[in-house]
């Protein structure tokens, strides 16, 4: 029975775990998706926005009328804006001027004040979105800079919520956890909890071709030659995030734009799961290591957000074609609407 809640924030956390039935056909073991789009802000970032802000309140850092500052145009921005509205805070987001207008409109619709900063300047330039966010936070009394890539409370929020939920939902039977790492908070926070329960659980990180994380995991070196442009938003990075705890990761898998895009469409068309691009990337990674699973494997895939945010990307046939992801390769996964 549906519950009654005092405000939208009470719906954050406790997302469902749903069996994958068709997209893992032929693979040994059981596969489940942790559907983070069931959070009210439609992504896993609701968890960190709520936890980081409430933690700052407990520590006395935030008082009524406070200002929350961050540098994201993506899921985290939306989640912070949502939490700020309910709690009566102002939300300021410094974002790249390359951000699509629809994304900016999305954040503004949620009450955020958006500062556009030039994309083509180094991170230490005073005009960069990092420096602008830092400066606003420093100059604004009663403010908090979320700084999700380097905030340990990001990781801790998943230790407190995502990890315990998965343990209970699988009745302790989970054998593998697979997740894309951006800040690394989701995968490694959940992994820290799960490994305390059972150190045998295998933790598999997913990185993008074009990001430095896998190579750093394998060699301990940040190799600038690894950095290349790529389309999947939310996973991988050109820096090593402080929120990522490499010690709990057993293996890293690299995935590329094209198969991840097809896999995202497959999830919609075969499982009726309207999820984002990194969910497809996560499925691609699971398929790449299918030889490591057996009949007793209970594999949890982290699906971070909702597919509605990608209508002009993976769910657009025109976009797919513009990337050279051609109709013939779509294997019947093209949408009827435009083809
Ligand atoms: N997928 C998407 C769509 C995201 O926005 C993010 C967050 N950057 C991730 C995956 C990765 O989550 P995390 O930052 O917790 O590693």
Automatic annotation (TrEMBL):
This is Cystathionine beta-synthase. It comes from the Bacteria. Residues 9-305 form the Tryptophan synthase beta chain-like PALP domain. Belongs to the cysteine synthase/cystathionine beta-synthase family. Its cofactor is pyridoxal 5'-phosphate. CDD domains: CBS_like. GO terms for biological process: cysteine metabolic process; serine family amino acid metabolic process; sulfur compound biosynthetic process. It holds the Pfam family PALP. Keywords: Pyridoxal phosphate.
């Amino acid at each position: 029975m549906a519950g009654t809640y005092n405000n939208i924030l009470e719906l954050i956390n406790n997302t469902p775990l749903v069996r994958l039935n068709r997209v893992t056909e032929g693979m040994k073991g059981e596969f489940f998706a942790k559907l983070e789009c069931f959070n009210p802000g439609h992504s896993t970032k609701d968890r960190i926005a709520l936890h980081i802000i409430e933690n700052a309140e407990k520590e006395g850092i935030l008082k009524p009328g406070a200002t929350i500052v961050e540098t994201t145009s993506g899921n985290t921005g939306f989640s912070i804006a949502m939490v700020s509205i309910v709690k009566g805070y102002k939300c300021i987001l410094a974002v790249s001027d390359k951000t699509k207008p629809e994304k900016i409109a999305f954040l503004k619709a949620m009450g955020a004040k958006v500062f556009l900063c030039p994309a083509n300047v180094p991170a230490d330039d005073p005009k960069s979105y990092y420096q602008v966010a830092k400066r606003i936070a420093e100059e604004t009394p009663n403010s908090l800079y979320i700084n999700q890539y380097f905030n340990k409370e990001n990781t801790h929020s998943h230790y407190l919520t995502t990890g315990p939920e998965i343990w209970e939902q699988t009745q302790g039977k989970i054998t593998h956890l697979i997740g894309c790492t951006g800040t690394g908070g989701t995968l490694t926070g959940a992994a820290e909890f799960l490994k305390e329960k059972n150190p045998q659980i295998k933790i598999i990180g997913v990185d993008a071709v074009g990001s430095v994380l896998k190579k750093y995991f394998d060699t301990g070196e940040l190799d600038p030659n690894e950095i290349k442009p790529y389309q999947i938003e939310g996973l991988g990075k050109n820096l090593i995030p402080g929120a990522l705890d490499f010690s709990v990761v057993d293996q890293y898998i690299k995935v590329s734009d094209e198969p991840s895009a097809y896999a995202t469409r497959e999830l919609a068309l075969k499982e009726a799961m309207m999820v984002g691009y990194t969910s497809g990337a996560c499925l691609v990674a699971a398929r790449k290591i299918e030889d490591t699973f057996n009949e007793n494997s209970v594999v949890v895939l982290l699906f971070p957000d909702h597919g509605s945010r990608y209508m002009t990307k993976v769910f657009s046939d025109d976009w797919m074609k513009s990337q050279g992801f051609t109709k013939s390769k779509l294997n019947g996964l093209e949408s009827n609407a435009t083809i």
